[in-house]
Amino acid sequence: MSSTSTTAAGRAAVPGRLAAPAPGTRILRSGNRPGEAVVRVLLRLAAFLSVAITVGIVLSLLGPALDFFSEVSVVEFLTGTRWTPRFADASYGVLPLVTATAWTTLIAIAVAVPFGLGSAIYLSEYAPDRVRRILKPVLELLAGVPTVVFGYFALTWFAPTVLQRFLSLEVGPFSILSAGAVMGVMIIPTVASLSEDAMSAVPNALRQGSAALGANRMQTSLRVVFPAAFSGIVAAIVLGISRAVGETMIVTIAGGQLVQMVSSPLQQGATMTTFIANAALGDSRVGSLEYNTLFAVGLLLFFLTLIVNLVAIQLVRRFRQEY
Amino acid sequence: MALYTPQAAAADARRTVLTTSGRSRERTPRSLVFVVLLWFSLLVAFATLVALLVHTLVDGLPRLDGRLFSEYPSSRPEEAGARPAVLGSLWVIGTTAVLAVPLGVAAAVHLEEFADRDKWWNRLIEVNISNLSAVPAIIYGMLALGSLALLGVTQKNIVVGGAVALGMLILPVIIISTREALRAVPRELRDGSLAVGASDLQTTWRITLPAALPGIATGTILALSRALGEAAPLLLLGGLVFLSFDPNGLLSQFTTMPIQIFSWTSQPQAEFHTLAAAASILLMGILLLMNGTAIYIRNRSQKRW
Known about the structure:
Number of strands of chain B: 0
Number of domains of chain A: 2
Order of helices and strands of chain A: HHHHHHHHHHHHH
Radius of gyration of chain B: 24 Å
Shape of chain A: globular
Structural class of chain A: mainly alpha
Shape of chain B: globular
CATH architecture of the largest domain in chain A: Orthogonal Bundle
Strand content of chain A: under 5%
Number of domains of chain B: 1
CATH architecture of chain B: Orthogonal Bundle
Distance between the termini of chain B: 20 Å
Largest sheet of chain A: none
Low-confidence stretches of chain A: 1-24
CATH superfamily of chain B: MetI-like
CATH class of chain B: Mainly Alpha
CATH topology of the largest domain in chain A: MetI-like fold
Mean pLDDT of chain B: 85
Structural class of chain B: mainly alpha
Oligomer: heterodimer
Radius of gyration of chain A: 25 Å
Number of strands of chain A: 0
CATH class of the largest domain in chain A: Mainly Alpha
C-alpha cells in the first residue's frame, strides 16, 4: 500500500523533478512506523466489508429463493395472479403483490414529485436566505419522522378525517390511496432536498443571462434552471421511487392485508413489503416453503430497487451537463 | 445535504441579482399563479407535519406518563407500558453504535486517506456503498435473518441480531458522511503534520480525525437516529413479541419502540392507538433531541479553514 501510494504523488516532491502534482494529491508522504501496516490492513478490511455485505445480501436471499424456485416455477411466480401461499391449494403468483406495490408507488410519486419540485424551486430560486434557513430544517423534521408514526397517522387521521370526512370517498380504514398519499408526503423532503441541491448547483451566469434576455423569474426557473438541473432532478425522483417501493411500515399499517389484484386506489391491497413483514410475524420454520417464499419475494424486491437505481445512474449520466 | 454552507450563502448573494432586476416582469398573472403554486407545495408538506404533530400530541399526551416507562405490555390498555421497548431500543441502538461507528469510520478513513483511486477495487467499493445506501431497509432484516439461519442460530430475536441488521443499514450512511467530514479538512493540516515528521497514520489519528470529529459526530448521530426510528428490519427478526421482562444482554430477546408502536397501532381498540400516540411522542422527542444535538454540533464547529 505505502509503496504504491508514494510513487505517483511522492515522485513529484523529489527535488529536481519538474512534474507538478495534480490538484488534490498529497505531496508529502512518510514511511510507516512498525505495526502501522497492520492498522492499514484493518482499515482496508473495514472498507471491503461493504462489498461483503452486498455479497451477503445476494447470497442470503439467493439460497432460500433458489430452494423456492425448485418447487415453484419462475414463470408461475412472475405471471400468476393468485397469491395464496397459506391455503391448502397454494398458489404462488406474485402479480397481486407487485400490482399493489406499483399502485402505492405511483400515488406516492404523484404526491411527492409535484410538491417536492415546487418546494425545491421555491427554496432554490425564490426564498430569501432568512426564509430558507427556517424552511429547510422544518422539511428535515418531516424527513425525520419515523415511518411507523406515518403509518399510525395514515390509519388514525388521514384515512378517517381527510379521505372519509373531507373528501367523502368510499374508502375503508385501509386503502392503497391513504398509504400511498402519506408515503408521498414522507418522500417530499427527499425529492425537494436533492432537487434543490441540483438547482442550486446551476451556475448563476445562466440565470443572469436569462434575466438579461428579459425573462422573469418563473421563466428562468422553468426554462433555464430546471433543464440545466435535470439530471439531478431525475436522480432525486428515482431515489424517491426506490424509497416508495421498499417502504414497509406505512403500507403494512395503512394499506391493508388483503392480497388481491388492485384495480382501484380505494381498495386495500398487500404490497410485496406488506407480505414480507406479515410473513415474518408468523413463525415460519427455516427451510420450509413458507420461509423460502419470503426470500423469493425479497429477492424480487431487491432486484426491482436495484434496477430502479441503475436506471437512475444511467439517466444521470445521459443528461448530465458539466459547467 | 442540508448544510447551510458558505457556498450556499455566496450563491444567495449572487441570486439577489435577479431579485433586483425587472420588478414589473415579476407581476404578470402567470408568474403570480406560479409563485402561489410554489407556496402551496411547501404548504402541503408543512400542513401535513403540523397535522401529524397535533394529532399525535392530542391523542397521546394524556397517556404520556410514568406507566409508559414502568409497565410491561398488556392486553389491558390502562395497564400497558413500553418499558421493555424503551430498554430494548437502548440496547439495540447502543450495540448498533458499537458495531457500526468504528467500522464506518475506518472504512471512510481508508477510502479518503489511503485508497488509491485508480485501483478498480477501490472504485468498486465506492459504487457499492452508494448502491447499498439505496437498498430497502427490510432487505437488511432478511440478510440478518438469513445469516442467523446460516449460523444455525434458532433464537433469531436477539439484541445482537437486531444490531447487526441496523448496523449494516446505517454503515453506508456513516461512511458517506465521515468521508465528507474528512474531505473538508484542508490538505495543509496534513502536510504540516507530515512535514514535522509524523507518519501517515499518526497524521490521520492526531490531526485529520480530530479536525473532522464534529462532522463525523453529526453524521453518526443522524445515522443512529435513523436506526432508532426503523422498524422493518427488526420485524423480520421476530421483534414483535410480548416481553414481560427487561432485556439484559446481547443475547437477550428484545422489542423496540417503533415495533411497540406498530404493535399498538395494529390493535383495533382506540385505547391502544392512544398508547401508540404516546409512544410516538416519546420516540419523536428522543429523535428531535438527537437531531438537535447533531445540528448544534454542526453549527458550533463550523470552521472556516
